[in-house]
Amino acid sequence: MTSSPATENKTLNEVNEIIKGIENTCLPLIEGVIIAHVPALGLPVVKQISESIEQIIANYLTKWAETQADFAIIDVQVDQEQSNLQKAKSDADFQKAQSALINDDGSGTLK
Predict the structure, then answer these.
(1) Contact 49, 111 (CB under 8 A)
(2) Domain count, the chain
(3) In the chain, what's the furthest Cα-to-Cα distance?
(4) What is residue 5's DSSP assignment?
(5) Residue 9: CB partners within 8 Å, gap ≥ 6?
(6) What does each C-alpha distance from 73 to 11, 14, 47, 53, 59 come to in angstroms?
(7) What is the spatial distance between Cα 32 and Cα 38, in angstroms, rounded to a whole number?
(8) How many Å apart are CA 93 and CA 111, to the nearest integer?
(9) Looking at the predicted structure, is the pLDDT value of residue 14 above 90?
(10) Range of the domain at 59
(11) Shortest CA distance to 15 belongs to which of 68, 77, 51, 93?
(12) pLDDT tens, residue by residue, 48-98
């Protein structure tokens, strides 16, 4: 029985959660710095509007960071899989050549 490939990349999910955690931690700090430099943005109605704009920008930047991280992680994973495949093929070729030598089956070619 063969195992089916995973439909979920746990590494990507973990990295994306870390990125979202960074956003959730940094966004209130950034809002505080903005209000400290421009106190008018802390007024009740203005603050709600500015927080909405900040959230839209933060969501966009978070999605961008997640996408960049996902592509980088997938590239590393694919490279590792290709390396494993090449190693397996090399091992199989070596074992075949070694078997031919040990068994002297005449399958070698003259040059």
Answers:
(1) no
(2) 1
(3) 89
(4) P
(5) 73, 74, 77
(6) 8, 11, 38, 30, 21
(7) 10
(8) 19
(9) yes
(10) 12-74
(11) 68
(12) 999 999 999 999 999 999 999 999 999 998 888 888 878 878 888 877 777
In angstroms, the CA 32 to CA 42 distance is 9
Is 39 inside any structural domain?
A: yes
Q: 64 near 36, Cβ under 8 Å?
A: no
pTM value is 0.67
Is 109 among the domain residues? no
CA 61, 64, 66, 69 torsion-angle sign: negative
Residue 104, domain member (yes or no): no
Query: Do the domain assignments include residue 40?
Result: yes
| C-beta separation of 62 from 19 below 8 A | yes
**How many whole angstroms separate alpha carbon 66 and alpha carbon 52?**
21
pLDDT in the model for residue 97: 75
Residue 69 tokens read as 């991280």
Type and span of the H or E element at 65: helix 44-103
Distance CA 90, CA 79 (A): 16
